[in-house]
Amino acid sequence: MEAPKKLVGSVASCADDTLAGLVACNPGLRLLRGHRVALRADLDALRGRVALLSGGGSGHEPAHAGYIGKGMLSGVVAGAVFTSPAVGSILAAIRAVTQAGAVGTLLIVKNYTGDRLNFGLALERARAEGADVQMVVVGDDCAFTTQKKAGRRGLCGTVLVHKVAGALAEAGASLDEIVKRVSAVTKAMGTLGLSLSPCSVPGSKPTFQLADDEMELGLGIHGEAGVRRMKVMPADEAVETMLAHMTDPANASHLPLSRGAAVVLVVNNLGGLSCLELGIVAGAAVRGLERRGVRIARALVGSFMTALEMAGVSLTLMLADEELLGLIDAKTTAMAWPNLVAGPAVSQRPEVPAPNEGPEPQPAQQTPSTGPGTKRVQLVLERVCSTLLGLQDKLNELDRAAGDGDCGHTHARAARAIQEWVRARPPPAAPAQLLSALADLLLEKMGGSSGVLYGLFLTAAARPLHNRSDLPTWADAMDAGIEAMRRYGGAAPGDRTMLDSLCAAAQALHALRSPGAELLTVLASAVQSAEEAAEATRHMEAGAGRASYISSAQLLQPDPGAVAAAAVLRAVLEGLRG
After folding, report:
1. Distances (CA, A) of 257 to 246, 295, 319, 487, 495
2. Does the annotation flag 110 for ligand binding?
Protein backbone atom coordinates (compact mmCIF):
# COMPACT_ATOMS: atom_id res chain seq x y z
CA MET A 1 0.00 0.00 0.00
CA GLU A 2 1.32 3.43 -0.91
CA ALA A 3 1.31 6.35 1.52
CA PRO A 4 -2.00 8.25 1.32
CA LYS A 5 -2.08 11.58 -0.47
CA LYS A 6 -1.43 14.69 1.62
CA LEU A 7 -1.72 18.36 0.75
CA VAL A 8 1.66 19.47 2.10
CA GLY A 9 4.64 21.37 0.76
CA SER A 10 7.09 18.75 1.92
CA VAL A 11 6.96 15.95 4.45
CA ALA A 12 10.04 17.27 6.23
CA SER A 13 8.70 20.79 6.76
CA CYS A 14 4.98 20.16 7.30
CA ALA A 15 5.07 20.81 11.08
CA ASP A 16 6.87 24.14 10.56
CA ASP A 17 4.60 25.07 7.67
CA THR A 18 1.34 24.52 9.55
CA LEU A 19 2.52 26.57 12.52
CA ALA A 20 3.72 29.34 10.21
CA GLY A 21 0.35 29.33 8.43
CA LEU A 22 -1.52 29.64 11.71
CA VAL A 23 0.63 32.55 12.83
CA ALA A 24 0.31 34.26 9.45
CA CYS A 25 -3.48 34.26 9.77
CA ASN A 26 -3.64 35.25 13.45
CA PRO A 27 -2.31 38.68 14.44
CA GLY A 28 -2.37 37.60 18.09
CA LEU A 29 0.43 35.05 17.59
CA ARG A 30 4.17 35.25 17.05
CA LEU A 31 6.84 32.65 16.23
CA LEU A 32 9.90 32.38 18.45
CA ARG A 33 12.93 32.79 16.22
CA GLY A 34 14.93 29.61 15.76
CA HIS A 35 12.34 27.34 17.36
CA ARG A 36 9.06 25.63 16.50
CA VAL A 37 7.35 27.71 19.18
CA ALA A 38 4.32 30.01 18.96
CA LEU A 39 3.67 32.67 21.61
CA ARG A 40 1.12 35.34 22.39
CA ALA A 41 1.95 38.55 20.56
CA ASP A 42 1.20 40.53 23.75
CA LEU A 43 3.82 38.92 26.00
CA ASP A 44 3.88 42.12 28.07
CA ALA A 45 0.43 41.13 29.35
CA LEU A 46 2.08 38.23 31.21
CA ARG A 47 3.94 40.57 33.56
CA GLY A 48 2.91 39.69 37.10
CA ARG A 49 0.88 36.65 35.97
CA VAL A 50 1.50 32.96 35.57
CA ALA A 51 2.42 31.84 32.05
CA LEU A 52 0.97 28.63 30.63
CA LEU A 53 2.90 26.54 28.10
CA SER A 54 1.81 23.32 26.44
CA GLY A 55 2.58 21.39 23.30
CA GLY A 56 3.50 18.03 21.89
CA GLY A 57 3.73 16.45 18.50
CA SER A 58 2.09 18.09 15.50
CA GLY A 59 -0.85 16.39 13.81
CA HIS A 60 -3.39 17.19 16.54
CA GLU A 61 -4.45 20.57 15.19
CA PRO A 62 -5.98 22.84 16.33
CA ALA A 63 -4.14 21.58 19.42
CA HIS A 64 -2.12 23.12 20.70
CA ALA A 65 -1.41 26.46 19.02
CA GLY A 66 -5.11 27.12 18.43
CA TYR A 67 -5.48 27.59 22.19
CA ILE A 68 -2.97 30.43 22.52
CA GLY A 69 -4.59 33.65 23.63
CA LYS A 70 -5.75 35.74 26.54
CA GLY A 71 -7.53 33.44 28.95
CA MET A 72 -5.80 30.27 27.71
CA LEU A 73 -2.22 29.41 26.76
CA SER A 74 0.73 31.80 26.64
CA GLY A 75 2.54 29.66 24.11
CA VAL A 76 3.08 26.18 22.69
CA VAL A 77 6.03 24.09 21.63
CA ALA A 78 5.43 21.83 18.64
CA GLY A 79 7.31 18.71 17.65
CA ALA A 80 7.32 16.96 14.31
CA VAL A 81 4.18 14.96 13.51
CA PHE A 82 3.40 12.68 16.47
CA THR A 83 6.85 13.45 17.92
CA SER A 84 7.63 15.17 21.21
CA PRO A 85 9.14 18.66 20.89
CA ALA A 86 12.81 19.30 21.48
CA VAL A 87 14.03 20.09 24.99
CA GLY A 88 15.86 23.17 23.71
CA SER A 89 12.68 24.64 22.23
CA ILE A 90 10.70 23.99 25.42
CA LEU A 91 13.43 25.69 27.45
CA ALA A 92 13.48 28.62 25.01
CA ALA A 93 9.72 29.07 25.45
CA ILE A 94 10.09 29.06 29.25
CA ARG A 95 12.85 31.66 29.03
CA ALA A 96 10.74 33.84 26.72
CA VAL A 97 7.76 34.05 29.08
CA THR A 98 9.99 34.38 32.14
CA GLN A 99 11.89 37.27 30.58
CA ALA A 100 8.55 38.86 29.66
CA GLY A 101 7.81 39.16 33.37
CA ALA A 102 5.74 36.06 34.17
CA VAL A 103 5.83 35.25 37.89
CA GLY A 104 5.83 31.52 37.20
CA THR A 105 5.31 29.03 34.40
CA LEU A 106 3.05 25.99 34.29
CA LEU A 107 3.77 23.28 31.74
CA ILE A 108 0.61 21.36 30.74
CA VAL A 109 1.73 18.03 29.31
CA LYS A 110 -0.17 15.04 27.94
CA ASN A 111 0.80 11.74 29.52
CA TYR A 112 3.12 10.27 26.91
CA THR A 113 6.64 9.15 27.73
CA GLY A 114 8.37 11.44 25.25
CA ASP A 115 6.41 14.51 26.34
CA ARG A 116 7.01 13.82 30.03
CA LEU A 117 10.73 13.32 29.46
CA ASN A 118 11.32 16.33 27.24
CA PHE A 119 9.15 18.79 29.16
CA GLY A 120 10.50 17.39 32.43
CA LEU A 121 14.13 17.88 31.42
CA ALA A 122 13.39 21.42 30.21
CA LEU A 123 11.68 22.13 33.56
CA GLU A 124 14.73 20.97 35.49
CA ARG A 125 17.07 23.09 33.39
CA ALA A 126 14.82 26.14 33.75
CA ARG A 127 14.69 25.69 37.52
CA ALA A 128 18.47 25.49 37.53
CA GLU A 129 18.41 28.92 35.93
CA GLY A 130 16.17 30.23 38.71
CA ALA A 131 12.79 30.07 36.97
CA ASP A 132 9.68 29.07 38.94
CA VAL A 133 8.27 26.25 36.82
CA GLN A 134 5.85 23.44 37.58
CA MET A 135 4.29 20.74 35.43
CA VAL A 136 0.87 19.09 35.35
CA VAL A 137 0.59 15.81 33.45
CA VAL A 138 -2.87 15.13 32.01
CA GLY A 139 -4.07 11.54 31.72
CA ASP A 140 -7.77 11.31 30.89
CA ASP A 141 -8.00 8.11 28.82
CA CYS A 142 -10.82 5.77 29.94
CA ALA A 143 -9.95 2.94 27.57
CA PHE A 144 -8.02 0.44 29.66
CA THR A 145 -9.84 -1.98 31.93
CA THR A 146 -6.71 -2.71 33.98
CA GLN A 147 -4.16 -0.31 35.39
CA LYS A 148 -1.20 0.34 33.13
CA LYS A 149 2.21 1.20 34.55
CA ALA A 150 2.43 4.11 32.13
CA GLY A 151 -0.88 5.48 33.42
CA ARG A 152 -3.78 6.94 31.45
CA ARG A 153 -2.94 8.56 28.12
CA GLY A 154 -3.45 12.28 27.64
CA LEU A 155 -6.30 13.00 25.22
CA CYS A 156 -8.81 15.74 24.45
CA GLY A 157 -9.45 16.49 28.12
CA THR A 158 -6.15 18.36 27.98
CA VAL A 159 -7.98 21.17 26.16
CA LEU A 160 -10.30 21.65 29.14
CA VAL A 161 -7.25 21.85 31.38
CA HIS A 162 -5.89 24.60 29.09
CA LYS A 163 -9.13 26.51 29.55
CA VAL A 164 -9.42 26.13 33.31
CA ALA A 165 -5.77 27.00 33.89
CA GLY A 166 -5.99 29.92 31.48
CA ALA A 167 -9.00 31.44 33.21
CA LEU A 168 -7.30 31.10 36.60
CA ALA A 169 -4.09 32.68 35.33
CA GLU A 170 -6.02 35.55 33.74
CA ALA A 171 -7.76 36.13 37.06
CA GLY A 172 -4.37 36.47 38.77
CA ALA A 173 -4.16 33.10 40.57
CA SER A 174 -0.77 31.98 41.81
CA LEU A 175 1.16 29.11 40.27
CA ASP A 176 0.47 26.88 43.28
CA GLU A 177 -3.24 27.69 43.17
CA ILE A 178 -3.45 26.84 39.49
CA VAL A 179 -1.56 23.57 39.91
CA LYS A 180 -3.82 22.53 42.79
CA ARG A 181 -7.01 23.33 40.89
CA VAL A 182 -6.10 21.73 37.55
CA SER A 183 -4.64 18.67 39.26
CA ALA A 184 -8.08 18.09 40.77
CA VAL A 185 -9.69 18.63 37.38
CA THR A 186 -7.53 15.98 35.70
CA LYS A 187 -8.79 13.41 38.22
CA ALA A 188 -12.42 14.29 37.55
CA MET A 189 -12.58 13.76 33.82
CA GLY A 190 -12.34 11.01 31.25
CA THR A 191 -12.06 10.60 27.49
CA LEU A 192 -12.69 7.70 25.13
CA GLY A 193 -12.10 7.52 21.38
CA LEU A 194 -13.79 5.55 18.62
CA SER A 195 -12.50 5.34 15.07
CA LEU A 196 -13.78 4.18 11.69
CA SER A 197 -10.40 4.55 9.98
CA PRO A 198 -6.69 4.85 10.71
CA CYS A 199 -4.56 7.93 10.15
CA SER A 200 -1.25 8.27 8.36
CA VAL A 201 1.77 10.41 9.11
CA PRO A 202 2.75 12.37 5.97
CA GLY A 203 5.01 10.18 3.86
CA SER A 204 4.01 6.99 5.68
CA LYS A 205 1.39 4.28 5.35
CA PRO A 206 -1.66 4.15 7.66
CA THR A 207 -0.86 3.39 11.28
CA PHE A 208 -3.19 0.37 11.33
CA GLN A 209 -5.84 -1.31 9.21
CA LEU A 210 -9.58 -1.57 9.77
CA ALA A 211 -11.92 -3.65 7.64
CA ASP A 212 -14.79 -1.84 5.95
CA ASP A 213 -17.24 -3.20 8.51
CA GLU A 214 -15.10 -2.54 11.60
CA MET A 215 -14.60 0.23 14.14
CA GLU A 216 -12.04 0.47 16.95
CA LEU A 217 -12.82 1.51 20.52
CA GLY A 218 -10.34 3.17 22.85
CA LEU A 219 -7.54 4.04 20.46
CA GLY A 220 -5.05 6.85 21.10
CA ILE A 221 -4.53 10.09 19.19
CA HIS A 222 -1.44 8.75 17.41
CA GLY A 223 -3.17 5.69 15.99
CA GLU A 224 -2.21 3.45 18.91
CA ALA A 225 -4.31 0.33 19.20
CA GLY A 226 -7.54 0.46 21.14
CA VAL A 227 -9.08 -2.04 23.53
CA ARG A 228 -11.79 -3.51 21.35
CA ARG A 229 -12.48 -3.95 17.64
CA MET A 230 -16.19 -4.07 16.83
CA LYS A 231 -18.50 -4.27 13.87
CA VAL A 232 -19.74 -0.90 12.64
CA MET A 233 -22.97 0.01 14.40
CA PRO A 234 -25.44 2.92 14.31
CA ALA A 235 -24.39 6.13 16.07
CA ASP A 236 -26.76 5.68 19.03
CA GLU A 237 -25.40 2.20 19.74
CA ALA A 238 -21.79 3.30 19.29
CA VAL A 239 -22.20 6.21 21.69
CA GLU A 240 -23.97 4.01 24.23
CA THR A 241 -21.06 1.56 24.02
CA MET A 242 -18.62 4.41 24.64
CA LEU A 243 -20.52 5.84 27.62
CA ALA A 244 -20.97 2.39 29.15
CA HIS A 245 -17.23 1.68 28.87
CA MET A 246 -16.25 5.09 30.25
CA THR A 247 -18.44 4.76 33.35
CA ASP A 248 -18.19 1.02 34.05
CA PRO A 249 -16.89 0.56 37.64
CA ALA A 250 -15.20 -2.67 36.51
CA ASN A 251 -13.03 -0.57 34.22
CA ALA A 252 -9.94 0.54 36.15
CA SER A 253 -9.73 3.81 34.18
CA HIS A 254 -13.44 4.65 34.37
CA LEU A 255 -14.91 8.01 35.36
CA PRO A 256 -17.25 7.66 38.37
CA LEU A 257 -20.52 9.17 37.23
CA SER A 258 -23.60 9.14 39.43
CA ARG A 259 -27.17 10.30 38.84
CA GLY A 260 -27.51 14.00 39.41
CA ALA A 261 -23.93 14.76 38.43
CA ALA A 262 -23.18 17.77 36.23
CA VAL A 263 -20.60 17.48 33.45
CA VAL A 264 -18.94 19.37 30.65
CA LEU A 265 -19.22 17.27 27.49
CA VAL A 266 -16.76 17.53 24.62
CA VAL A 267 -17.64 15.78 21.37
CA ASN A 268 -14.34 15.89 19.51
CA ASN A 269 -13.75 15.15 15.84
CA LEU A 270 -10.58 13.08 15.55
CA GLY A 271 -9.94 14.70 12.18
CA GLY A 272 -11.80 13.03 9.33
CA LEU A 273 -15.35 12.63 10.56
CA SER A 274 -17.93 14.72 8.70
CA CYS A 275 -19.67 17.51 10.59
CA LEU A 276 -22.94 15.76 9.79
CA GLU A 277 -21.81 12.63 11.65
CA LEU A 278 -20.40 14.73 14.49
CA GLY A 279 -23.78 16.36 15.08
CA ILE A 280 -25.48 12.96 15.15
CA VAL A 281 -22.96 11.68 17.69
CA ALA A 282 -23.41 14.82 19.80
CA GLY A 283 -27.18 14.31 19.94
CA ALA A 284 -26.73 10.66 20.86
CA ALA A 285 -24.29 11.59 23.64
CA VAL A 286 -26.71 14.10 25.15
CA ARG A 287 -29.55 11.56 25.12
CA GLY A 288 -27.31 8.85 26.56
CA LEU A 289 -26.20 11.04 29.45
CA GLU A 290 -29.76 12.19 30.14
CA ARG A 291 -30.86 8.57 30.41
CA ARG A 292 -28.23 8.18 33.14
CA GLY A 293 -29.62 11.16 35.02
CA VAL A 294 -26.57 13.29 34.23
CA ARG A 295 -26.92 17.03 33.60
CA ILE A 296 -24.86 18.30 30.67
CA ALA A 297 -23.99 21.74 32.02
CA ARG A 298 -22.00 22.65 28.91
CA ALA A 299 -21.38 20.91 25.59
CA LEU A 300 -18.59 21.61 23.10
CA VAL A 301 -18.80 20.05 19.64
CA GLY A 302 -16.07 20.35 17.03
CA SER A 303 -12.44 19.57 16.25
CA PHE A 304 -10.39 20.20 19.39
CA MET A 305 -7.64 17.56 19.42
CA THR A 306 -7.33 15.52 16.25
CA ALA A 307 -5.26 12.65 14.91
CA LEU A 308 -4.57 13.90 11.39
CA GLU A 309 -7.29 12.55 9.07
CA MET A 310 -8.62 9.83 11.36
CA ALA A 311 -12.37 9.37 10.82
CA GLY A 312 -13.40 9.08 14.42
CA VAL A 313 -14.70 10.81 17.50
CA SER A 314 -13.84 11.07 21.16
CA LEU A 315 -16.11 11.91 24.06
CA THR A 316 -14.76 13.79 27.07
CA LEU A 317 -16.68 14.18 30.32
CA MET A 318 -15.53 16.51 33.07
CA LEU A 319 -17.37 16.64 36.38
CA ALA A 320 -18.20 20.29 37.00
CA ASP A 321 -19.42 22.54 39.78
CA GLU A 322 -20.47 26.18 39.44
CA GLU A 323 -16.96 27.47 40.08
CA LEU A 324 -15.53 25.26 37.37
CA LEU A 325 -18.28 26.28 34.94
CA GLY A 326 -17.36 29.90 35.56
CA LEU A 327 -13.80 29.13 34.45
CA ILE A 328 -15.06 27.29 31.36
CA ASP A 329 -17.30 30.24 30.50
CA ALA A 330 -14.59 32.87 31.03
CA LYS A 331 -13.68 34.86 27.94
CA THR A 332 -10.69 33.92 25.83
CA THR A 333 -9.21 35.16 22.57
CA ALA A 334 -7.90 31.70 21.62
CA MET A 335 -9.04 31.08 18.07
CA ALA A 336 -9.92 27.38 18.48
CA TRP A 337 -12.07 27.75 21.59
CA PRO A 338 -15.75 27.89 20.58
CA ASN A 339 -17.73 31.08 21.14
CA LEU A 340 -20.62 29.48 23.02
CA VAL A 341 -23.70 30.81 24.74
CA ALA A 342 -23.31 29.64 28.34
CA GLY A 343 -25.99 27.10 29.17
CA PRO A 344 -26.79 23.41 29.42
CA ALA A 345 -27.24 20.91 26.60
CA VAL A 346 -30.62 19.17 26.48
CA SER A 347 -32.15 16.76 24.00
CA GLN A 348 -35.50 18.58 23.93
CA ARG A 349 -35.83 22.34 23.65
CA PRO A 350 -39.02 24.38 23.16
CA GLU A 351 -39.63 24.93 19.49
CA VAL A 352 -40.41 28.24 17.87
CA PRO A 353 -44.10 28.11 16.91
CA ALA A 354 -44.74 27.77 13.20
CA PRO A 355 -45.89 31.05 11.64
CA ASN A 356 -49.51 31.41 10.69
CA GLU A 357 -50.13 30.41 7.11
CA GLY A 358 -51.82 32.80 4.76
CA PRO A 359 -55.47 32.30 3.94
CA GLU A 360 -56.19 29.45 1.55
CA PRO A 361 -57.07 30.78 -1.90
CA GLN A 362 -60.68 30.15 -2.69
CA PRO A 363 -60.95 28.26 -5.96
CA ALA A 364 -63.12 29.90 -8.57
CA GLN A 365 -66.19 28.14 -9.88
CA GLN A 366 -65.00 25.26 -12.01
CA THR A 367 -66.19 24.90 -15.55
CA PRO A 368 -67.03 21.36 -16.66
CA SER A 369 -63.80 19.37 -16.37
CA THR A 370 -62.22 16.66 -18.39
CA GLY A 371 -59.75 16.14 -15.48
CA PRO A 372 -59.64 12.74 -13.82
CA GLY A 373 -61.68 11.94 -10.74
CA THR A 374 -60.25 10.96 -7.39
CA LYS A 375 -59.95 7.26 -8.22
CA ARG A 376 -58.16 8.01 -11.46
CA VAL A 377 -55.88 10.51 -9.67
CA GLN A 378 -54.94 7.82 -7.16
CA LEU A 379 -54.20 5.35 -9.94
CA VAL A 380 -52.01 7.87 -11.79
CA LEU A 381 -50.10 8.87 -8.66
CA GLU A 382 -49.52 5.24 -7.70
CA ARG A 383 -48.14 4.50 -11.17
CA VAL A 384 -45.82 7.55 -10.96
CA CYS A 385 -44.56 6.48 -7.52
CA SER A 386 -43.90 2.87 -8.46
CA THR A 387 -42.06 4.05 -11.58
CA LEU A 388 -39.77 6.37 -9.63
CA LEU A 389 -39.07 3.78 -6.97
CA GLY A 390 -38.15 1.28 -9.66
CA LEU A 391 -35.78 3.78 -11.26
CA GLN A 392 -33.94 4.69 -8.05
CA ASP A 393 -30.74 2.76 -8.73
CA LYS A 394 -30.64 3.70 -12.41
CA LEU A 395 -31.04 7.41 -11.68
CA ASN A 396 -28.35 7.28 -8.99
CA GLU A 397 -25.98 5.60 -11.42
CA LEU A 398 -26.66 8.21 -14.11
CA ASP A 399 -26.18 10.99 -11.56
CA ARG A 400 -22.78 9.78 -10.37
CA ALA A 401 -21.18 11.23 -13.48
CA ALA A 402 -22.16 14.68 -12.21
CA GLY A 403 -20.64 14.12 -8.81
CA ASP A 404 -23.21 13.34 -6.11
CA GLY A 405 -25.21 10.33 -7.31
CA ASP A 406 -28.39 11.05 -5.35
CA CYS A 407 -30.95 11.77 -8.08
CA GLY A 408 -32.58 8.38 -7.57
CA HIS A 409 -32.72 8.85 -3.80
CA THR A 410 -34.32 12.27 -4.25
CA HIS A 411 -37.05 11.02 -6.58
CA ALA A 412 -37.65 7.94 -4.42
CA ARG A 413 -38.09 10.24 -1.43
CA ALA A 414 -40.72 12.14 -3.37
CA ALA A 415 -42.46 8.90 -4.37
CA ARG A 416 -42.65 7.65 -0.79
CA ALA A 417 -43.99 11.01 0.39
CA ILE A 418 -46.75 10.93 -2.25
CA GLN A 419 -47.66 7.33 -1.33
CA GLU A 420 -47.94 8.25 2.33
CA TRP A 421 -50.02 11.32 1.47
CA VAL A 422 -52.43 9.33 -0.71
CA ARG A 423 -52.85 6.68 1.99
CA ALA A 424 -53.63 9.35 4.58
CA ARG A 425 -56.36 11.14 2.62
CA PRO A 426 -58.00 11.06 -0.81
CA PRO A 427 -56.18 13.47 -3.12
CA PRO A 428 -58.26 16.37 -4.42
CA ALA A 429 -59.86 15.76 -7.79
CA ALA A 430 -59.86 19.44 -8.83
CA PRO A 431 -56.72 19.88 -10.98
CA ALA A 432 -55.58 23.20 -9.50
CA GLN A 433 -55.93 21.94 -5.94
CA LEU A 434 -54.20 18.68 -6.83
CA LEU A 435 -51.17 20.35 -8.41
CA SER A 436 -50.88 22.91 -5.56
CA ALA A 437 -51.05 20.17 -2.94
CA LEU A 438 -48.39 18.15 -4.77
CA ALA A 439 -46.20 21.25 -5.02
CA ASP A 440 -46.40 21.82 -1.25
CA LEU A 441 -45.67 18.15 -0.58
CA LEU A 442 -42.60 17.99 -2.82
CA LEU A 443 -41.22 21.28 -1.55
CA GLU A 444 -41.38 19.91 1.99
CA LYS A 445 -40.37 16.29 1.45
CA MET A 446 -38.40 15.83 -1.77
CA GLY A 447 -35.38 17.99 -1.06
CA GLY A 448 -32.59 19.00 -3.39
CA SER A 449 -32.91 21.30 -6.38
CA SER A 450 -35.28 18.78 -7.97
CA GLY A 451 -37.81 19.33 -5.18
CA VAL A 452 -37.73 23.08 -5.70
CA LEU A 453 -37.95 22.78 -9.49
CA TYR A 454 -40.91 20.40 -9.36
CA GLY A 455 -42.51 22.66 -6.75
CA LEU A 456 -42.08 25.68 -9.03
CA PHE A 457 -43.45 23.78 -11.99
CA LEU A 458 -46.55 22.51 -10.20
CA THR A 459 -47.25 25.82 -8.44
CA ALA A 460 -47.14 27.75 -11.72
CA ALA A 461 -49.03 25.04 -13.64
CA ALA A 462 -51.88 25.17 -11.12
CA ARG A 463 -52.70 28.81 -11.80
CA PRO A 464 -54.29 28.47 -15.27
CA LEU A 465 -56.34 25.55 -13.93
CA HIS A 466 -58.10 27.55 -11.21
CA ASN A 467 -60.83 28.66 -13.60
CA ARG A 468 -60.79 26.02 -16.31
CA SER A 469 -59.49 22.51 -16.84
CA ASP A 470 -60.33 21.79 -20.45
CA LEU A 471 -57.68 20.34 -22.75
CA PRO A 472 -56.27 23.65 -24.07
CA THR A 473 -55.86 24.85 -20.48
CA TRP A 474 -53.73 21.78 -19.66
CA ALA A 475 -51.40 22.86 -22.48
CA ASP A 476 -51.34 26.37 -20.95
CA ALA A 477 -50.54 24.83 -17.54
CA MET A 478 -47.57 22.93 -18.97
CA ASP A 479 -46.21 26.11 -20.57
CA ALA A 480 -46.69 28.08 -17.34
CA GLY A 481 -44.82 25.47 -15.31
CA ILE A 482 -41.91 25.39 -17.72
CA GLU A 483 -41.71 29.17 -17.81
CA ALA A 484 -41.41 29.30 -14.01
CA MET A 485 -38.64 26.69 -14.05
CA ARG A 486 -36.75 28.61 -16.69
CA ARG A 487 -37.18 31.95 -14.91
CA TYR A 488 -35.86 30.81 -11.54
CA GLY A 489 -33.72 27.82 -12.44
CA GLY A 490 -31.75 29.54 -15.19
CA ALA A 491 -31.77 26.56 -17.55
CA ALA A 492 -33.03 26.42 -21.13
CA PRO A 493 -33.66 23.66 -23.67
CA GLY A 494 -30.34 22.22 -24.75
CA ASP A 495 -28.69 22.68 -21.34
CA ARG A 496 -28.94 18.95 -20.52
CA THR A 497 -31.54 19.14 -17.74
CA MET A 498 -35.06 17.90 -17.09
CA LEU A 499 -36.25 20.90 -19.10
CA ASP A 500 -35.16 19.13 -22.28
CA SER A 501 -37.76 16.41 -21.70
CA LEU A 502 -40.44 18.78 -20.43
CA CYS A 503 -40.05 21.29 -23.25
CA ALA A 504 -40.23 18.54 -25.89
CA ALA A 505 -43.41 17.23 -24.25
CA ALA A 506 -44.88 20.75 -24.03
CA GLN A 507 -44.43 21.27 -27.78
CA ALA A 508 -46.38 18.09 -28.44
CA LEU A 509 -49.07 19.06 -25.93
CA HIS A 510 -49.81 22.23 -27.89
CA ALA A 511 -51.92 19.92 -30.08
CA LEU A 512 -54.46 19.90 -27.25
CA ARG A 513 -55.46 23.38 -28.39
CA SER A 514 -56.72 22.00 -31.70
CA PRO A 515 -60.48 21.35 -31.99
CA GLY A 516 -61.31 17.68 -31.55
CA ALA A 517 -57.97 16.82 -29.92
CA GLU A 518 -57.94 13.45 -28.15
CA LEU A 519 -56.10 13.52 -24.79
CA LEU A 520 -54.45 10.10 -24.76
CA THR A 521 -53.30 10.34 -28.36
CA VAL A 522 -51.69 13.74 -27.80
CA LEU A 523 -50.20 12.66 -24.48
CA ALA A 524 -48.68 9.54 -26.05
CA SER A 525 -46.99 11.73 -28.62
CA ALA A 526 -45.74 14.04 -25.86
CA VAL A 527 -44.30 11.09 -23.93
CA GLN A 528 -42.44 9.83 -26.98
CA SER A 529 -41.01 13.31 -27.58
CA ALA A 530 -39.91 13.55 -23.95
CA GLU A 531 -38.20 10.17 -24.07
CA GLU A 532 -36.37 11.03 -27.28
CA ALA A 533 -35.27 14.34 -25.79
CA ALA A 534 -34.02 12.61 -22.63
CA GLU A 535 -31.93 10.21 -24.70
CA ALA A 536 -30.60 13.14 -26.74
CA THR A 537 -29.12 14.72 -23.61
CA ARG A 538 -26.45 12.01 -23.81
CA HIS A 539 -24.77 14.09 -26.52
CA MET A 540 -25.30 17.56 -25.00
CA GLU A 541 -22.90 19.90 -23.23
CA ALA A 542 -24.32 20.64 -19.78
CA GLY A 543 -25.18 24.32 -19.48
CA ALA A 544 -26.86 24.39 -16.07
CA GLY A 545 -26.91 22.50 -12.81
CA ARG A 546 -24.08 20.62 -11.12
CA ALA A 547 -23.27 18.73 -14.31
CA SER A 548 -22.21 22.01 -15.97
CA TYR A 549 -18.99 21.86 -13.91
CA ILE A 550 -18.05 18.46 -15.34
CA SER A 551 -16.19 17.96 -18.60
CA SER A 552 -18.61 16.93 -21.35
CA ALA A 553 -16.30 14.04 -22.17
CA GLN A 554 -17.17 12.53 -18.81
CA LEU A 555 -20.95 12.82 -19.31
CA LEU A 556 -21.51 9.75 -21.44
CA GLN A 557 -25.01 8.97 -20.14
CA PRO A 558 -28.33 10.80 -20.51
CA ASP A 559 -29.22 13.38 -17.88
CA PRO A 560 -30.94 11.70 -14.91
CA GLY A 561 -33.37 14.59 -14.41
CA ALA A 562 -34.49 14.39 -18.03
CA VAL A 563 -34.87 10.61 -17.77
CA ALA A 564 -36.92 10.99 -14.57
CA ALA A 565 -39.21 13.64 -16.09
CA ALA A 566 -39.86 11.49 -19.17
CA ALA A 567 -40.57 8.50 -16.93
CA VAL A 568 -43.08 10.52 -14.92
CA LEU A 569 -44.91 11.51 -18.09
CA ARG A 570 -44.93 7.86 -19.24
CA ALA A 571 -46.39 6.83 -15.87
CA VAL A 572 -49.12 9.50 -16.14
CA LEU A 573 -50.07 8.17 -19.58
CA GLU A 574 -50.20 4.57 -18.37
CA GLY A 575 -52.21 5.59 -15.32
CA LEU A 576 -54.78 7.41 -17.44
CA ARG A 577 -55.06 4.42 -19.76
CA GLY A 578 -55.74 2.28 -16.72
Report:
1. 9, 11, 8, 59, 61
2. yes
